[in-house]
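Exercise 7. Predict the structure of Universal stress protein family protein from Thermophagus xiamenensis.
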Amino acid sequence: MNSMLVLIGPEEVNPRPIIQFSIHLSQLLNYRLIITTIRDKGLTQTKQPSYEDIEIKGSEEDLFPTILKHTSDPAIDLSLVVFCRSEIVISRKQQATRFFIQCRSLKIPYLILPEQQDLTWKPNHIFFPVCNRDGEKEASAWCMTWANATNGNITLLHPHFRNTANQKKLNQLLAFITRLFKHSNCPHKIIKTEGSKRATIQYAINSLNKVSDSLLIIPATRLNSPEYIFTGPPELKLLKKITSRPILLVNPRHDLYLPCN
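Solution. The predicted structure, encoded as tokens:
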């Protein structure tokens, strides 16, 4: 059975909404739920009353050593890591940049929760921008998995390139992804935007924010850029524009864990 790992840091004064949402999400995906505290000195957080008999593990280690401990255990079969927004600290650009740099080592997708958890949320509308970025084939497999598990609908958005070579590459990518969705009987629609890659992603963000039961699935960036020191990585910009919806990020790795179905 696939598992999802939810990490709760000491910054979470009231972790109950996160625990409740995690239970809700694990039931939607049919995942085994693993919740653990991090940086829990003396394991004081785990001594608090649990919620509905859900076991909460404790770890005195930092965030990524705790993740590594779980991902390296084949018996757990970890398929998803869930982060709270408080772990990223959007207001501190350098700290947030270090967080996303470390995330690039993950071989499984990671979900970033919204600022407030809605226990009625369900990914009925999955927005997936396709713009010739690395990792979009891999991300499409996770779109299919989430849509099939939750009976969601996928909206695939793509730009139109003036450059013939870029457009040919995009057409081949779209053909691959749509075949995958059709083969899996996955409900989807395609929207061609008239703008650039950036405009297409912004279109997806605007559409996402208009619908309550929505989810954005998008590849993370592959490499670091010197300009991130000043601007922060693209993932940080996404979080600033999307505050009330979850975001599923998929690393563009050749050794990425992919759903077997």
